[in-house]
Write a structure and sequence with these properties.
With 224 residues, the chain is mainly alpha-helical. The protein is built from eleven helices and no strands. Helix 2 packs parallel to helix 6 and helix 10 runs antiparallel to helix 11.
Length: 224
C-alpha cells in the first residue's frame, strides 16, 4: 500500500508542484491585500469606538454591522454571490486570478476582527500617558497601538493566513486551481485516494509552516 502511494506521488509530481505554486500565489496575493484592508478596518473599529481617540458611534456601528454581515457568509456562498463583482474587477471568475477577489472579500473582515482584538489589548493607560505628553492621534496609532500590539497582530495574521489556506482549497470546487482543485478533479472525481491523501498532507504542511513561522516571529517581538 505504501509502495502504491509513492508510485502515485511520483506519477502526479508535476501536478502537485503546479498546484502548490497556484496555492502559494492565491494565498500570498490575497493575504497582502486582505491584511492591508483588515488592518485599516481594525484600526477604524478601535479608534472610533466610544471613549477612544476618534470616537464616532455612527461610523463604528456601520463598520461593525458590515463586517459582521460579511463574516457570517460561508465562503462557497460568498464566492458565487459576488461573481459579477469578481468579473468586473479581474475580468474572469475562474482560475487563480478569479479566486483572489472572493478570497480577499472573505478574509479581510475576518482579519479585521482579529486585528481589532489585538489592538484592544493595548493598555489604555499607555495611550493616556502618551496623550498627556502631547502625542497626536496619528502618533498614538503608529507609535502606541501598532507598536505595542505587534506580537498579537502577528498571531492574528497567522490565524488569518491559515484560514486563507483552507479557503483557497475550497475555491478548487469552482476550478480556481491549487491543491483544492487537484483534490476534487483527481482525488474525488477520478477516485484516486492517494491523490486526495497527498493534497491533505500538503495542506497540513502549509498550515504547520505558517503556524510555526508566525509563533516564532511573535515570540521574538515579545522579547524586544
Amino acid at each position: 500500500m505504501l509502495g502504491n502511494f509513492f508510485d502515485s506521488f511520483a506519477e502526479f509530481w508535476d501536478l502537485y508542484v503546479q498546484s502548490m505554486r497556484e496555492t502559494g500565489i492565491m494565498v500570498v496575493y490575497s493575504l497582502v491585500i486582505s491584511a492591508a484592508i483588515g488592518l485599516l478596518l481594525g484600526i477604524v473599529l478601535v479608534v472610533t469606538r466610544p471613549g477612544h481617540i476618534y470616537a464616532n458611534p455612527i461610523v463604528y456601528q456601520v463598520m461593525n454591522i458590515i463586517i459582521n454581515v460579511l463574516r457570517s457568509l460561508p465562503f462557497i456562498i460568498l464566492m458565487v454571490a459576488i461573481i459579477p463583482f469578481t468579473k468586473w474587477v479581474v475580468g474572469t471568475t475562474i482560475g487563480v486570478k478569479g479566486a483572489i477577489v472572493p478570497l480577499v472579500v472573505y478574509t479581510a473582515p475576518y482579519l479585521a476582527r482579529l486585528l481589532e482584538s489585538a489592538l484592544l489589548e493595548v493598555d489604555r493607560g499607555v495611550i493616556e500617558a502618551f496623550q498627556s505628553m502631547g502625542a497626536t492621534h496619528r502618533q498614538i496609532i503608529t507609535r502606541v497601538l501598532l507598536r505595542e500590539a505587534r506580537p498579537s497582530l502577528v498571531l492574528g495574521l497567522t490565524i488569518g493566513t491559515i484560514s486563507l489556506v483552507g479557503a483557497s482549497a475550497m475555491a478548487g470546487v469552482v476550478g480556481a486551481g491549487g491543491l483544492g482543485d487537484v483534490a476534487i478533479r483527481y482525488g474525488y472525481q477520478r477516485w484516486e485516494p492517494n491523490v486526495m491523501i497527498t493534497c491533505v498532507l500538503l495542506l497540513i504542511l502549509w498550515v504547520q509552516i505558517v503556524q510555526s513561522l508566525g509563533t516564532a516571529i511573535a515570540k521574538r517581538l515579545r522579547k524586544r
